[in-house]
Specification:
Layout (H helix, E strand, L loop, with lengths): L3 E6 L3 E8 L2 E4 L9 E2 L1 E3 L8 E2 L1 H5 L8 E3 L32 E3 L2 E3 L1 H20 L5 E6 L5 H13 L3 E7 H8 L9 E8 L4 E9 L2 E10 L4 H18 L12 H17 L5 E10 L2 E8 H13 L1 H12 L8 E5 L6 H11 L14 E3 L7 H13 L7 E5 L4 E5 L3 E6 L4 E2 L1 E7 L8 E8 L9 E9 L10 E7 L5 E7 L5 E5 L10 H11 L1 H30 L6 H19 L10 H14 L1 H18 L5
Parallel strand pairs: 1-10, 10-11, 12-17, 14-19, 17-18
Antiparallel strand pairs: 1-2, 2-3, 2-4, 5-6, 5-7, 8-9, 12-13, 13-14, 15-16, 19-22, 20-21, 20-24, 23-26, 24-25, 26-27, 27-28
Helix pairs in contact: 2-3, 4-10, 5-6, 5-7, 12-13, 12-14, 13-14
């Protein structure tokens, strides 16, 4: 069996790792460097791309042809990118389709650029082993959606890998920290703040089994945002000192790139120093800039950004149904967790102590024992070793971060796989038609936590055909399967004929990715109104069915009922119709109590009609069988 390597495809840096004689290690390049900057420079249309440190060196000189932080755009679509477009010094095409990067007359997808980084890591691994390497485990943020996971997998395939597993970064980090060696029933929080994303995952270890209890995060929050905040701060100081404009559209890309590099370096140094000097000589021919930046100033600039992780941490704890005191450890992952303010924030939030014997104090340990830049890659290598047959005493179970389901009649979402379900997973349900003589059924796949379909993400639509039949007769089985990579496969099968369709949900996710960080919060904020809307829709459907049945019964029993009784039924039916007509078009809901009261009145008054209809049906049946004259 060929080797499998573990890869951390990061926003700022990427790494490739393996397990050698039972010891996980990060593979270095020919110059001994373990971290590869996730930067790709395109010298010309014909020349081969330059990747890593060499590309990073020319980023200042050739900002429009040098692509970095592309992980923030992978698997995303143009309409989502209004703010992100301003954050980089190279151009983006953000039309209606997937985001592309125009370089030398070509529009490149983010996964094509990520593939160049992966090709470089592949070459480093092959140089280390002295043989071809064609299989990989690649990590992604736990909160990456289906489109982003699929795009990451395609990047690996473009680089020549067979992608054996797409693995959540916090789960990989837990493996790297050796948490499989903890005592039974250990619970761990993984606080992962990287260059472009944040995740908080709660894991439980029980008998060598890693079970992800809950995960929450933000795919657009990380060290890049702190860099941007610091860049804006320095740009203001440059302008105040009489220098040129270095912020907004008016800034020259080359100067903006210099400012970004200076900001990044200052931020990194302030993790170990209390103040640094920033020098930008010859911004123009007659203007140079120099200033001192303190750690306190950087913390004031970034405190609110770091505080935004709090909501995600608390929601993950709530989803896992535990409190901070129930944790054994909180491990910090991602380069941005080197920042003292981040460590203090996480320690205060979870009530941690930085001591190996934290258990004696009854408080969780803040575990900073591993290199936060390398932990994810090492965990990916351990997972690769597990897939290769090593580390047989460890089993990894991941979860899906949001609920998945389909739209049902009335515009509601019917959940098939609830959020935080362990994956791989398969679930299904039987559905039928809502109208007579339908020839097909639309399967509208949704992801989210809201009650109404319109408030969730649309992952895709397809139809399945079947023979026309009365309402409620056709049976269509819908099955969702999430594989080990977190990719969703949807099957719809007509039970009568066996005809089926299977759709793999890929990068056609036409949804605003900003909803990733808002979806769960909105589900809590609107919980009562959503529940009221669902109850209204269900009552409305029942009312419409009752009205249709009443009209049908009146027609069938026209000769048997008195005029006064018919008038009373029609009056009660009009009361139901009146309440339905008063539905608020904007909210899609109405007066539920009034509708329930009107329905109850209609049900009560039509009892004799229902009895009469049943008697007629029974008499007709007996006559058909020759039991009555």
């Amino acid at each position: 069996m060929s080797r499998i390597v573990g890869i951390d495809l990061g926003t700022t840096h990427s790494l490739v790792a393996t397990v050698d004689s039972g010891i996980p290690l990060v593979i270095a390049d020919a110059r001994g460097r373990r971290l590869t900057p996730s930067v790709v420079h395109f010298p010309s249309a014909e020349a081969a791309p330059v990747v890593g440190h060499e590309a990073n060196h020319v980023r200042v000189l050739k900002p429009a042809e040098t692509v970095y932080s592309v992980k923030r755009f992978i698997g995303r679509r143009g309409p989502e990118m209004a703010e992100e477009e301003k954050a980089v010094t190279y151009p983006l095409h953000c039309a209606g389709g997937p985001v592309t990067i125009p370089v030398h007359g070509r529009d490149l997808l983010p996964e094509e650029i990520s593939a160049e980084v992966l090709k470089k890591l592949k070459r480093d691994a092959e140089a280390y082993f002295g043989e071809p390497v064609a299989r990989a485990v690649i990590t992604v943020p736990a909160y990456f959606n289906d489109a982003q996971r699929s795009a990451t997998k395609r990047a690996g395939e473009r680089a020549g890998f067979v992608v054996e597993r797409i693995l959540n970064e916090p789960t990989a980090a837990a493996l790297a920290y050796g948490l499989d060696k903890l005592r039974e029933q250990s619970r761990i929080a993984v606080y992962d703040l990287g260059g472009g994303t944040f995740d908080l995952s709660i894991l439980e270890l029980d008998g060598g089994v890693f079970h992800v209890l809950a995960t929450h995060g933000n795919t657009r929050l990380g060290g890049d945002d702190i860099d941007r905040r610091l860049m804006d701060f320095l740009a203001e100081r440059v302008a105040a000192a009489g220098g040129p404009q270095l912020a907004g559209q008016a800034a020259e890309p080359a100067l903006l790139s210099r400012l970004r590099e200076a900001s990044e370096q200052a931020k990194i140094r302030l993790s170990t120093e209390t103040e640094v000097e920033i020098a930008l000589p010859f911004i123009t021919l007659d203007f140079s800039f120099r200033c001192t930046l303190t750690r306190a100033e950087l913390e004031n600039l970034s405190r609110d950004l770091i505080a935004r992780t709090r909501t995600h941490c608390l929601r993950a704890l709530a989803d896992a149904k535990i409190e901070p005191k129930d944790l054994d450890q909180v491990i910090l992952v991602g380069g941005q967790t080197r920042m003292p303010l981040v460590r203090k924030f996480a320690g205060d939030l979870f009530g941690c102590v930085e001591s190996p014997d934290a258990a004696a104090s009854g408080r969780p340990r803040l575990n900073t024992s591993q290199n936060p830049d390398e932990a994810v890659a090492l965990g990916a290598a351990i997972q690769a070793e597990i897939l290769s047959g090593g580390f047989k005493n460890v089993l990894l179970l991941d979860v899906t971060p949001l609920s998945l389901g389909i739209e049902t009649f009335g515009g509601l979402m019917n959940v098939l796989i609830p959020r935080n379900s362990t994956i791989p997973i398969k679930a299904g349900e039987m559905f039928t038609t809502a109208a007579d003589h339908q020839r097909s059924m639309l399967i509208h796949v949704l992801q989210g936590e809201r009650e109404r379909a319109r408030d969730n993400w649309s992952l895709g639509r397809f139809t399945i055909e079947f023979e026309p039949a009365p309402r409620g007769m056709p049976r269509v089985g819908v099955q969702f399967e999430i594989d080990a990579d977190g990719i969703l496969h949807v099957l719809a099968r007509d039970v009568k004929t066996g005809r089926e369709k299977i759709v793999e949900i890929k990068s056609a996710v036409d949804v605003d990715d900003a909803a990733v960080r808002q979806m769960v919060e909105e589900s809590v904020e609107h919980a009562f109104t959503d529940l009221a809307a669902r109850r209204w829709v269900e009552a409305k459907l029942k009312a419409e069915q009752t009205l249709a049945a009443t009209q049908k019964a009146l027609a069938a029993c026209a000769e048997e009922i008195e005029t006064d009784y018919r008038r009373r039924i029609e009056t009660a039916a009009r009361e139901v119709e009146k309440v339905l007509a008063a539905e608020n078009a904007e909210s899609g809901a109405g007066d539920l109590k009034s509708l329930q009261a009107a329905l109850a009145a209609l049900d009560e008054i039509t009892r004799p009609l229902a009895d009469l209809l049943m008697n007629k049906a029974a008499e007709t049946l007996l006559r058909r069988r020759g039991l009555v004259a």
